[in-house]
């Protein structure tokens, strides 16, 4: 039997399982019913505490131990359950059960930022983690990826340096959750291998609109191994069905103040309203022959393989359909390990991946307190798990019976499990040879060509955003040598970019950095690298903010709400008072947000459905004026009614209305609804 809290209790006729009012009885950890949870035991009403009070001591002791160390990176995360469904038969490539056509595998996916601590804001400019645990029939497979397909460094030995440089400086303990500081750019500018990643992190990829609208990548080259033992190289891609979308930097800054939980709330709300986010799993598969002739080393995690060269083959889908029951038990305690692979999936010699395979297991022991973190339900496999590993902190299941070793002669009933050469995991028997050397392969030496390719693959507005982001970040660096060193690298990526950033900083261009190898200038532009070229096809899953006040036209509000419902989008009514407003037909509309708490930055588009009287009321409120100026500045599509004029005037945008603004009460409704999937009117210079 379980209680309402899902605590297992043994229904052995215990006398007081419910209170007189029908609640489950509160007990100590040892199951003793508690009579008073409001006052501790004292000697006399106003006297000192008595040590006898075991309930008080147990409660406070437990509270004192509630925290565990946060993850050293990716501390802030948010996760959801779901399933992976394989849509293609991949038995020619891999024997993994997870890749049998039609197989549905339960999953747990955790998204995260990297640098910030657990309490940092969601929309910090940062890489996002995208880690999925597949509870396959053959054991757990963890695909621990990011929303960017390349990484900063080529060898795992540099990871502590990279992270130390990105995290708050050791002397002052700031800045938090940002890379806009000297230490970060000092390290980066001294590590030319990071230049391709620099282009990605300075693009809008690091300020996603939501976890739902970003891609995921396994980053490294992995192996697929089929039943005959044949190996094929593979790179994993998650493609959001919802299309790609990011916020703009000025929005990000403001969202972090208005709603530091913007991304987690978004995922929670989407799942709770039944709008389950979905990604396609794509594979780039290639053989040794391709690897040999490819311009770059497939073991170098600072490089992509362009989709135009090796197409991404869609093989399955991931659907997130259930939020967690308890954040700590699941999201916090989930322990991803890159070394968790299943038969049919294997590693390559990528020197970053090899290092990760040590780090993840090690870090879980520190974080979760011992070797038995695999017994925690969120980490336990959902297939049989039998071995002779035993004891240790918090052991939940030790081997039963007399035999805790093998070989033994206790027989199949009592003798415990045995290895299975036919079905057990087999590492790919790759031939290796060579001297033991601590060195970097020459094939890793081209640091600029793909950075240039990324830059050239962006739309104009995206290129401008990269230049602006670099200018912003470097202007937060006080050390002139750091700024200049970065500019010297940018010259090897693209002169226009270097010039734009130098101009933004008010600096002369320095000499180009000395490249380890000459930059190739002829890499083909790859449309897959742009966010704007891969935006959504519709407005599904997005949010429209409707600003109303007393006298707003009821028909227009209703028409918008209906249209959004049909589009699978959400509407949030924003009003001067959270109690709502009285509409033109005398009906009352509830508000989702009071204007102070519902700035336009929280919505993908806005509609100002206002009567003149309502607009006058709002014109006196600074947050209402910001609502309008921000929506304009961030390139949002704006629906409006004639009555909105007084507000538009004081917000200073009256003369600036453009064809991204639609008069909803004058034939503009259709145009507005058609424009929404484009998400922004980019030529407004957002
Ligand atoms: Fe991680 N990384 N990482 N990382 N990483 C961790 O493991 C590490 C790297 C990634 O939601 C840690 O459980 C090293 C690349 C994600 O719980 C730690 C290196 C990629 C998560 C660790 C890398 C990632 C982590 C910290 C360089 C993308 C969060 C807590 C060789 C492919 C997983 C933990 C979650 C977490 C080490 C580089 C992704 C310390 C040594 C490249 C998504 O083990």
Describe the structure.
- The structure is a single chain.
- By secondary structure, the protein is of the alpha/beta class.
- Among the domains are: 77-152 and 211-375, Catalase core domain (Catalase HpII,  Chain A, domain 1); 538-684, 3-Layer(aba) Sandwich (Rossmann fold).
- The chain contains 19 helices and 18 strands.
- A hairpin with a 5-residue loop joins β6 (222-225) and β7 (231-240).
- The mean pLDDT is 96.
- The site of CIS-heme D hydroxychlorin gamma-spirolactone 17R, 18S has 25 residues, from β2, β3, β4 and α9.
Instruction: Determine the structural class based on helices, strands and strand pairing.
Output: alpha/beta
Q: Any ligands, ions or cofactors bound here, and which?
A: CIS-heme D hydroxychlorin gamma-spirolactone 17R, 18S
CATH topology of the domain at 77-152 and 211-375: Catalase HpII,  Chain A, domain 1
Contiguous helical run count: 19
Query: What is the overall shape?
Result: globular
Percent range of helical residues = 25-40%
Report the CATH C-level class of the domain at 77-152 and 211-375: Mainly Beta
Based on the coordinates given, report the CATH architecture of the domain at 77-152 and 211-375: Beta Barrel
Tally the beta strands: 18
CATH homology-level superfamily of the domain at 77-152 and 211-375: Catalase core domain
Unreliable spans:
none
Mean pLDDT: 96
Strand content: 15-25%
> From the alpha-carbon coordinates, what is the Rg to the nearest angstrom?
29 Å
Span from first to last CA?
A: 58 Å
Q: How many strands, which pairing sense, and closed or not: the largest β-sheet?
A: 10 strands, antiparallel
